[in-house]
């Protein structure tokens, strides 16, 4: 999913070719399709995915963009993942 957001960023801010919007759209469509495969309500799965997305975005920030994570970044990621655990416990 992050690629579906990163490629448009490259087009808009990085001056890259608009052809990158094609794999971006395919990536987002694939993600939406995957949500429909889970037996739990898609909204709950999407909420849980949001926690993973935020955490992966922070990893991306550190590894790709080279920005050091702050204590608040780490605490926020832990809180979000804990919230996801609470949501998904009900679904299991």
UniProtKB/TrEMBL annotation:
Pfam families the UniProt entry points to: UPF0060
Protein name, UniProt field: YnfA family protein
Coiled-coil zones: none
Source species of the chain: Synechococcus lacustris str. Tous
Annotated keywords: Cell membrane, Membrane, Transmembrane, Transmembrane helix
UniProt-listed PANTHER family: UPF0060 MEMBRANE PROTEIN YNFA
NCBIfam families in alphabetical order: PRK02237.1 (NF002586)
Any GO CC annotation of this UniProt entry: plasma membrane
TM region(s), chain numbering: 18-38, 45-63, 69-88
Organism superkingdom: Bacteria
InterPro entries for this protein: EmrE-like, UPF0060
Keyword check for Ubl conjugation: no
